[in-house]
Specification:
Elements: E1 14-18, H1 22-34, E2 44-51, E3 54-62, H2 68-84, H3 94-105, E4 138-146, H4 147-159, H5 164-179, E5 185-191, E6 203-208, E7 212-219, H6 226-232, H7 244-252, H8 261-265, E8 274-277, H9 278-282, E9 291-292, H10 294-304, E10 311-319, E11 323-331, H11 337-355
Parallel strand pairs: 1-2, 5-10
Antiparallel strand pairs: 2-3, 3-7, 4-11, 5-6, 6-8, 7-9, 10-11
């Protein structure tokens, strides 16, 4: 099946409006949600809302083609831009808005990461095979990080105030996006989280396929950093946890408006990975800002995967004093050992590139 590429050039996605109450603000959000169409475009809507002498920048995104990571990067850059420069004075097409943001973003302190040259596409060895939960089909691959690389890994987490699990998740996402083609695969990353090395706790986070309508609301404040804005609006952005993972990505990765082909590929459906934590998943059906649309999810998944059997790969780690062990637990009726070995090698290469 070909990639779904909505026509975006003629779509007007940025609008300016006023709201008297918070209910009016929500009405603006829902109106924008109604216009998001993953087939025909646009895949995102922007609204600048003036309410009670404050400006809110609202972004409504479709997670089939636009993931939370890209949204995080966009929000951080937009906040930085708003500190120093006004938004364009009129509504723009998606392409024009993207070009404008990219031009303005040249002044931002955003760096890129030089990754190793991709080896070859990751084969999905047995497409659409139902997942057999039997233990006889379960296998593990272990990647051990020790010695000088572990020392650099630990030093990097301390220098950049990012947890080990956040750095590993970032590397895993980059490895999947840069090295392999992994459509509709759910990566459940379980780790010791914020515990001291050698201890374990019940912490898990998910990188995976998600279809939802959500909105992010950021209020412009003078001389405020993106990090401070995210922290201040954390209660509103329940679908965007304020942690080292998001802040690390916002700092080190180019925003989705980078015109290079490789970055543009990352927002296509087969490369769409969303980030959530357990709390979001548990409250997905509540009245929180993010609401998973299960009525949309299953038909879309059935279309993308004819037999509707997503791939399963569990990545867990034990962060000890003298070594970091990363476990890849997979099912042999879905993946071959060589496939997982390639993924482990790619993850190690990305880690080397990240920590220097």
């Amino acid at each position: 099946m070909g990639v779904i590429e909505p026509s975006l050039a003629t779509r007007r996605v940025l609008a300016f409006c006023e709201a008297a109450t918070e209910a009016d603000l929500h009405a603006v959000v829902f109106e924008a949600c109604a216009k998001v169409d993953y087939r025909a475009g646009p895949i995102c809507q922007f609204r600048v809302v003036t309410m009670q002498q404050q400006q809110f920048f609202l972004s409504v995104v479709h997670h089939l083609t636009f993931d939370l990571i890209s949204s995080t990067i966009l929000m951080g850059d937009v906040v930085s831009l708003l500190r120093n420069k006004p938004l364009p004075p009129k509504s723009l097409s998606y392409v024009a808005w993207s070009d404008t943001l990219y031009t303005m973003a040249q002044d931002l302190d955003v760096s890129t990461i030089a990754l190793p040259t991709p080896s070859l596409p990751l084969p999905l060895d047995y497409p659409h095979v139902p997942l057999n939960r039997s233990k006889e089909y379960e296998a593990k691959e272990i990647l051990t990080i020790d010695g000088d690389l572990l020392h650099r890994f630990n030093a990097y987490t301390q220098q950049h105030t990012v947890t080990a699990v956040d750095l590993l998740m970032t590397a895993l996402l980059l490895a999947c996006n840069q090295h392999f083609n992994m459509p509709s695969i759910t990566l459940l990353f379980e780790s010791n989280g914020h515990s001291p090395p050698g201890q374990s706790c019940d912490v898990s986070r998910t990188l995976g396929w998600c279809v939802s309508h959500s909105y992010l609301s950021l209020t412009k404040q003078p001389n405020e950093s993106p990090k401070a804005t995210l922290e201040r609006t954390h209660s509103t952005l329940r679908n965007l946890p304020v942690n080292g993972f998001n802040l690390f990505l916002a700092k080190h990765l180019k925003m989705f408006t980078d015109p290079s082909e490789q970055v543009q590929l990352n927002v296509r459906p087969e490369m769409a990975f969303s980030y959530s934590d357990d709390q979001v998943l548990e409250t997905a059906n509540s009245a929180s800002p993010i609401a998973l649309r299960h009525d949309l999810l299953m038909p879309i998944m059935s279309q993308l995967l004819p037999n509707a059997h997503p791939y399963s790969l569990v990545v867990s780690c034990l962060h000890g004093v003298d070594k970091l062990e990363i476990y890849f637990t997979y099912h042999t009726n879905q993946f071959s050992p060589s496939t997982i070995q390639l993924l482990a090698l790619a993850l190690k290469q990305v880690l080397v590139g990240l920590v220097g």
